[in-house]
Design a protein that fits this description.
single chain; mainly alpha
Amino acid sequence: MQQQPPVYPPQQAYAADQPTNTLAIVSLVAGIGSYVILPVIGAIIAVITGHMARGQIRRTGEGGSGFALAGLILGYIHLVLFLIAVAVIILVVVGAGVAIFSQNQAP
């Protein structure tokens, strides 16, 4: 009696991972770096490269959509915080100027 070879279940083909878009990585790194190293410039780089990466990802089907989105979010949040800080500084300077000016006008 001959022994039957073992029956293996059919193998499933695994899809190769798509390469990660380089601009998406740059966007994420710049978004993180904007809080640590390059305050405003990093945020601007993160926003620009994030939008470019999302466009490339849509066209080519590359991976990295989450990286690009995270870079965009970090960049935009940093820019909003920067604008709020500038507005507060302007209000403080104007308020101090008004206070000094009004004290000098008193007889």
